[in-house]
Each structure stands twice: as C-alpha cells, then as structure tokens.
Design a protein that fits this description.
The complex is a heterodimer of chains A (49) and B (500). Chain A has one helix at residues 13-48. With 49 residues, chain A is mostly helical. Chain A has one domain. Chain B folds into two domains: 7-259, no CATH class; 273-427, no CATH class. Chain B is built from 22 helices and two strands. In chain B, a hairpin with a 1-residue loop joins strand 1 and strand 2 (402-405). A two-stranded antiparallel ribbon of chain B has the order 1-2. Classes of the chains: A mainly alpha (49), B mainly alpha (500).
C-alpha cells in the first residue's frame, strides 16, 4: 500500500512526466525479454550450425 | 451447518448485480454512437435493444432489491461470480442479433471470451462485421481487462465501505492506494494513459502501412484495446498476421507485455519506484518462465527447421511465446500452423507459456507470476530446511512492493490456486479428447481457455460440440475470477437449497 494519491491528478505536468518515465521503464523490460529470446535462438543457431 | 441466506442477503446481491449490469448497459452507448456515426442502422437497433435489456434489469434490481445494507465478503464474492454470468447472458444480445453467430451459446461464448480477455472466437465472417459490433467486441475486452466491477466502483457504486469485497471477488486483491475507489481510479488512469500513448503510435504505423486515416484509427484503437487488455481480439480473421508489419508487431508486444504487468507494479514504477521492476518477484518469475518457454519452443522449431533465417525465427517465436505467456492470444501465424508446421514440441512451449500466464492484479490470466515465484521459493525453503540443522531458523524472503518473509500459508494458498488451474486445464483437455480431438490439440485449446489466453490450434470453431463450448466458457469464467468467487457462488446456491 502506498500513499501516492496525488499522482492521480493527471493535469500536473510532473505527474505526466513520471507516467511517461514509467512507460519507458516498462518498454525496456519488454526489450530485455526480446533480447533473452535472441540469445536463446542465437545459441541454437550456433550449436545447430 | 449451512445457513440459508435471508431475503436481505439476496437483496444485496441483486442490488449490486443490477448496478453492474447497468454499467454494462451504459457501456453499450459507445458502440451505439459508433453505429450512428457510421450510419449502421441495423446494428444501432441491436444495441438499443441490448441497452434496454441491461437498463431494465438494472432498474428492476434497483427497485426490487432496495436495501441500505453494505455487502459483506460473502456477498462480494457471490456478486462477482454471478454478475459476470449475468453480464455475459444479457450483453450477448447485440452479438446474437448481428447474425454473425450460429447460436446464442456462440454469442455468449464470445462475450465471455471478451470480458475475460481470452480472445477465443466463434464469430462467423469476422471480416465483414459492422464497426459498431467491432467496437463493442474490443471495448468489452478493454473493460473486462480492468474488471467490470472496477468500472462499477469507479463510476456507479458510491460508498467505499462495502466496495472492497466486490473488488477482491473479481480476482484483484491489491490496493494501489489506501482507498479502494481511488485504487479503481488509479487502475483506470494507468489504462487510459497507455491508451492515449499506444493508440496514436499504432495509428501512425497503420497509416504508414497504407491504411486510410479513418480505418487506420479504428484498427489502432481496437488493436490497442485488445493488446492492453491481453484480450487478443482483432477486427480481421487473420488476427495480427493481417498487418504483416514488424513495427506493428513490436508496438503490440510492448503494449501486451505492459498489460500483463501487475497494476500495483505499474503504480509503483510510475510514481517513482523505477527499480521495483527488477526486484519484483513477478517480473523475475516472468523472465525465467518466458525464457524456459522460448527455449522449448525454439527447440521445437529448430528440430523441424520451420523458418529459414534467424530474424524470421526470432520474429515468429518471440511474438507467439510472448502472446501466449501474457495470455494475449494475438498470433502472426495461422491457427493450424501450430499443428502442421510448428509440431508438438513447439506447441508444448506455447502451452507452458499460456498455463503460467502474466501477473496477478493485471489483465492477464493463468497461474500468475507471483504464484510461480512463491511456489519456487517454497521449494527453496523446504530444501534449505531439510539441509539445515533441526534447530536452525531458516528464512526465505520475497519481494513484491516490499520485502516479506515467506511463510507456509502463503505458499499453500498459491499452490491451491495453481491446482485449481491445473484441474480446469485437465477438465477441458479431457472433454476435448472425449469429443474426438487429438490430445496435444485438446490440451492446447483447453489451457488457452482456462488461462484466458486465446491462442487456438484450430479446435475452437463454430463447428465444435456444444458441450466443449460450454466447458471452455465456464473455464474462462472460473480462470478469470481465480475460483474463489465461483466456489462462493456454488456454495451459496447449495445453501439456498439445503441450508436451514
């Protein structure tokens, strides 16, 4: 539980910047997963010739 | 001894169910407006009829079940279980009237699939569906992803004191903020900000790919709603394969992975605790299980030499695995390609991904990352205890928003829900095999229905037996509500009949 109720106000620029930074972090997480997939596949390609 | 519910209990259940159905009726204003703008008069009439049915149900409940009592825990669970069934039965009216369904059961199946963000479909001639019906199909996945009770809490249910049981009954048990109404609003804020960012990006890609501005906007909006809610519906029968676009695939992957994350995690990251994403037990568990699913799927694809080059392999493998693991159900291959091209090992990888699913308190289904993490930590605890001296006090910690010490009851609760999921996967598979489908195919679609994923290898179709449709429908419902509300509703019905 947190008390960040003030963040509910989407009319504040500070909040919007914080939301967008959060989305940026979540995009990086997806790219990390794709990177893991690429490494796994690369491993198979190298081993399989 | 079972206690028979009193009239006052039934009134509370009726009143809150009625308000939720009223909310469903009000939501139909959006497809109705779409029909009027697009001059689709037939669908407009369908939605007017649907709205009238919902409003009539809601008003009758409001008049007939008037009570000042607040819902208790039991009421909340029963309302959650019952309202999803009632919303499916009444909300299917415009679907059925559209003429795109072979039976009312098929229409209800698609409604439940939408609410539960599953994405399995029985609709016929999808490529020629009206804009209004497409808007309704995608809107209800978007609404269902957040939770139809969350909508009611945001707009309709005024008092906060009785709201928490309803919220928990819908399978969400985390408060983003101390007040449950503000929690519901925070969930909607996260979803609407993503909508405001994601739709224009998809629109630009659609227009760059050659779609007209108006058509591109509608497709972008609908695909966003289906991706964010991990629903998997699409306006075309080829699903996202229709777009043949790498940027479109990348954008949808980002949206549906974000949609599968816990709303409490979103809120923590969005309010400044950025490091939470790398410490949280759910994201760690998700990373490990998706890596295992990708490993198995890639082994299957490489064994059969399905794709000739590295990029094609990565693009197809990652999209399908991520779609399955987040329980979205978008596919960039044909349904039957799972069977005819990918083979049983790659199908097993996708099945594992779907079974595990996304995060708790998100739009995703399946076991959920937090439970997988807790079960694994429970195993670690057991092994460490076995290897330690008898008097040693072994402590295993886990982190979800704050660091906690693992205890047996937490592991037991997680295990119990996982067992319930395995049971509905097994039931769906068994009925599928009894209906004559091969085991791998029956397992694939049964797990897809129970985990609210929506990928299909071809079993789910209008031609499948009505019994299997009913089993999948109930699996979607039980899986989405995470069983407690379903058991509570069952227990309540028994107590009405046999209680004293």
């Amino acid at each position: 539980m947190n008390g960040n109720g003030d963040y509910l106000d989407f009319r504040r620029w500070r909040n919007i910047a914080s939301y967008l930074a959060g989305i940026g972090v979540e995009i990086l997480f997806t790219l990390l997963l794709a990177g893991i997939g690429m490494l796994i596949l690369a491993g198979f390609w190298i081993v399989g010739g | 001894m079972l206690l028979r519910p009193r009239a006052g209990d039934l009134k509370v259940i009726g009143l809150y169910t009625g308000r939720i159905i009223l909310g469903v009726g009000l939501l139909m204003a959006v497809p109705l407006a779409t029909a009027l703008v697009a001059a689709e008069w037939g669908p407009a009439i369908d939605f007017v009829i649907g709205m009238c049915a919902c409003l009539a149900f809601g008003l009758l409940a409001e008049i007939g079940c008037r009570t000042s009592r607040e819902p208790t825990w039991t009421h909340g669970l029963v309302v959650a279980g019952f309202s999803w069934l009632a919303a499916t039965a009444i909300g299917a009216i415009p679907h059925w009237l559209s003429g795109h369904y072979g039976s009312y059961l098929d229409a209800m199946f698609d409604l439940m699939s939408g609410y539960t963000t599953t994405g399995l479909i029985l609709i016929q001639d999808l490529d020629h569906v009206s804009h209004a019906l497409n808007m309704w199909r995608h809107l209800l996945t978007y609404a269902g992803g957040q939770g139809i009770i969350v909508i009611a809490l945001t707009f309709l249910v005024g008092g906060a004191s009785g709201a928490y049981p309803l919220y928990v009954g819908e399978g969400k048990d985390e408060r983003l903020l101390p007040n449950v109404i503000r929690t519901a609003r925070a969930i909607w804020l996260v979803s609407l900000v993503y909508l405001a960012v994601g739709t224009p990006i998809l629109w630009l890609i659609a227009v760059a790919n050659g779609q007209s501005a108006a058509r591109g906007f509608l497709h972008a909006l609908w695909i966003f709603m289906a991706a964010w809610s991990t629903g998997g519906f699409a306006p075309q029968s080829y699903n996202t394969y229709y777009y043949h676009s790498l940027p479109f695939e990348l954008a949808t992957v980002i949206i549906f992975v974000a949609g599968s994350l816990n709303f409490a995690l979103h809120w923590a990251v969005w309010t400044g605790r950025r490091g939470e994403i790398r410490r949280n037990i759910e994201t760690l568990s998700f990373t490990v299980t998706i890596a295992i699913a990708m490993l198995v799927t890639t082994a299957g694809l490489m064994k059969l030499g399905v794709y000739p080059d590295f990029l094609a392999s990565l693009r197809k493998m990652f999209y399908q695995v991520a779609s399955g693991h987040t329980t979205t159900g978008f596919a960039t291959i044909y349904s039957r390609s799972f069977v005819r091209q990918w083979g049983p090992l790659a199908m097993l990888g996708i099945t594992l991904a779907m079974a595990v699913g996304g995060s708790a308190c998100s739009t995703a289904g399946g076991f959920k990352g937090i439970r997988m993490g807790l079960v694994f930590k429970g195993l670690v605890l057991g092994v460490r205890r076995a290897l330690s001296p008898e008097r040693a006090h072994v402590v295993v910690k886990w982190h979800h928003l704050r660091t906690r010490v693992l205890d047996e009851s937490t592991v037991f609760s997680a295990m119990l829900v996982v067992i319930c999921y395995v049971a509905i996967y097994a039931l769906g598979t068994l009925v599928g095999v009894l209906c004559g489908y091969p085991l791998t195919e029956a397992l694939f679609d049964a797990v897809s229905a129970g985990s609210n994923s929506g990928l299909s290898c071809g079993v789910t179709s209008p031609a499948m037996p009505a019994l299997l449709k009913a089993v999948y429908l109930l699996s979607m419902w039980a899986g989405r509500l995470e069983f407690m509300s379903v058991f509570a509703l069952g227990g309540y019905l028994i107590s009405i009949v046999r209680g004293r």
